[in-house]
Amino acid sequence: MATLNPVQFIQQVRAEVSKVVWPTRREVLLTTVMVFIMAALTAVFFAMVDLVIRFGLQSLLGMF
């Protein structure tokens, strides 16, 4: 691997960072809201699955 001096390294880093397409504030906000919505839906789903499993186990063990 070729060694670079620090000045060349910083120049290359700046060149690569300038190629990055940064999201807009609106895109970040929408993505954040979608993540919170999906997390809430996932929590509700697993809570319901937990309730069903608990009910089934209590019913099964209640027969004995």
Describe this protein's structure.
By secondary structure, this protein is mainly alpha-helical. It is 81% helix and 0% strand. It has helices spanning 6-19, 25-62. It is elongated. The mean pLDDT is 93.
Query: What is the 3D form?
Result: elongated
Oligomer state equals single chain
Average pLDDT confidence is: 93
Q: Could you give the distance between the termini?
A: 70 Å
Helix tally equals 2
Largest beta-sheet details: none
Radius of gyration, Cα only, in angstroms?
Answer: 26 Å
Helix content: over 70%
Which spans have pLDDT < 50 for at least 5 consecutive residues? none
Report the order of strands and helices: HH
Short account of what is shown:
With 64 residues, this protein is an all-alpha fold.
Supply the key terms.
mainly alpha, 64 residues, 81% helix, 0% strand
Furnish the topology, listing elements before pairings.
Elements: H1 6-19, H2 25-62
